[in-house]
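BUG: 3D viewer hangs when loading the predicted structure for this chain

Environment: internal workstation, default settings.
Expected: structure renders.
Actual: progress bar stalls at 90%.

Input used:
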Amino acid sequence: QVQLVESGGGLVQAGGSLTLSCAASGRTFSSYAMGWFRQAPGKEREFVARINRSGGTYVADSVKGRFTISRDNVKNTVTLQMNSLKAEDTAVYFCAMAGFGAATPLFRDYRYWGQGTQVTVSS
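Structure tokens produced before the viewer hung:
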């Protein structure tokens, strides 16, 4: 069975940085696109970034230039490097594994989800 376990969340001041990591198991990690989503209190879950099996990346406009997604197919991990954090980045961040090697920002492309990790940015 597929397991996705996020880590690295926490409390940080505005302008600071955090690195989120997601460890995957139970599936051939290198074959599938991976994504990060987030959900703030009272808001819908939204796309943050994704990386295809080829290594191609795409990030949401709201985090472009500040967040970077990467993957390590040896360690079976996907990482979200978050810089210049803002209060509006406060949310629970979820790691997701797609059903194919390439994926869009749409929820329907992702079959497996982690439990999430809290990121709180104080202003």
